[in-house]
Amino acid sequence: ERQALGPGALLLPGFALDRVEPLLQAVEAVQQQAPLRHLVTPGGLRMSVAMTNCGHVGWVSDRSGYRYDPLDPQSGRPWPAMPPALQTLAADAARAAGYDGFAPDACLINQYLPGTRLSLHQDRDERDQGAPIVSVSLGLPAVFLFGGAQRGDRVARHALFHGDVVVWGGASRLYFHGIAPLKEGSHPVLGERRLNLTFRKAR
Ligand code: MD3
Ligand code: FE
């Protein structure tokens, strides 16, 4: 089962469901080396999403801007390597969407607690914008906001559930998107939170 969310954006409902345990184990191991933290935007605002990364480079934001950095600025050490369970899931999902040989070098891990939101933005910090982005949703459901190529384009709402994977390629890759404030709730596996993993070819 697959559903187009936009031009080149394919929803694979429940694609990750049969591998949640190894995925969460891998995420735990990453968090131990590189704890979740709230980054500051170039404008000086503290992001409500808590983030960490694994892979050759990680996405970071501070007063000087957004970038992919091989070092975790909090520890000064390289980001943890991308665990095989994560790499494999990303490559399998990309293949299912028609992208053979997807080899992400960055995985951004986002944690949402009730009330956490991600305002409308574009993902433009990756060098290779022909490569797709693969996203995996775990835990509490979220309302995904999906606009268009222009900030003012109308915004559609889609629910994203535990185990859902979306492969963002084609024109959708540069569309504005965000997450509405997370609703209160408790998920049987993750408790009162949502995790989102995004796999990218950043360099
Ligand atoms: C559409 N994350 O990390 S995942 C992000 O749920 C991000 O944490 C959201 O937006 C989250 O940048 C949304 C879905 C997603 C991810 C990347 C995209 C949608 C996208 C890139 C381009 C277009
Ligand atoms: Fe994004």
Automatic annotation (TrEMBL):
Residues 103-203 form the Fe2OG dioxygenase domain. One of its GO terms (molecular function) is broad specificity oxidative DNA demethylase activity. Gene3D superfamilies: Alpha-ketoglutarate-dependent dioxygenase AlkB-like (2.60.120.590). Its cofactor is Fe(2+). Keywords: Dioxygenase, Iron, Metal-binding, Oxidoreductase. Its EC number is 1.14.11.33. It comes from the Bacteria. This is DNA oxidative demethylase AlkB. It comes from Caldimonas mangrovi. The gene is alkB.
